[in-house]
Amino acid sequence: MTLQIWIDADACPNVIKDILFRAAERRKLPLVLVANRLIATPRSQFIKAVQVAGGFDVADSYIVQQCQANDLVITADIPLAAEVVAKQAYALNPRGELYTQENIKEHLAMRDFMTGLRDTGQACGGPSAFGQRDNQAFANALDRFLAAHC
């Protein structure tokens, strides 16, 4: 069975989607964007978009239900990544970090810790602005993953 790529598309930067569109075409891999709004996609037999109902974590739930072992999910949502990894799939965030069985618990713990700090006012803000270095890190991580799994 062929690896499928799933994109948690509501918050995925357009530049990352473009990298994924090119990779899907080049490698002839099925790619599905999942969002609660209409997402424009290039015309391709390999790329499709699924619009789910609005609501908290509806797109995440759809991805978890549909993805299979060894699929790749593109998401910055660490709880979604944890659910995907529990299904023996992989998750890659738009900054190029791969979530695996070996590291997902550490990422969840850090996320929960930082949420606690923000909730008590001891920390504020989120990740730094997305930039060219992040684009390159993602492209490199995607290439490494596809070379190892396709």
Describe the protein in words.
The chain is an alpha/beta fold and 150 residues long. Helix content is 44%, strand content 15%. Strands 3-2-1-4-5-6 form a six-stranded mixed sheet, with helices on both faces. The chain starts with a strand and ends with a helix. 27% of the residues are buried.
| Secondary-structure element order, N to C | EHEEHEHEEHH
Which percent range fits the helix content?
40-55%
The gyration radius over C-alpha positions equals 15 Å
Termini distance?
11 Å
Stretches where pLDDT falls below 50 for ≥5 residues? none
Q: What amount of the residues lies in strands?
A: 5-15%
- Order of strands, main sheet, comes to 3-2-1-4-5-6
Mean pLDDT reading: 89
* Shape type: globular
What structural category characterises the helix and strand content?
alpha/beta
| Overall number of strands | 6
Total of DSSP H or I helical runs spanning 4+ residues: 5
Task: Describe, in short, the structure shown.
This protein has 150 residues and is α/β, with parallel strands linked by helices. The chain contains five helices and six strands, in the order E-H-E-E-H-E-H-E-E-H-H. Helix 1 links the parallel strand 1 and strand 2.
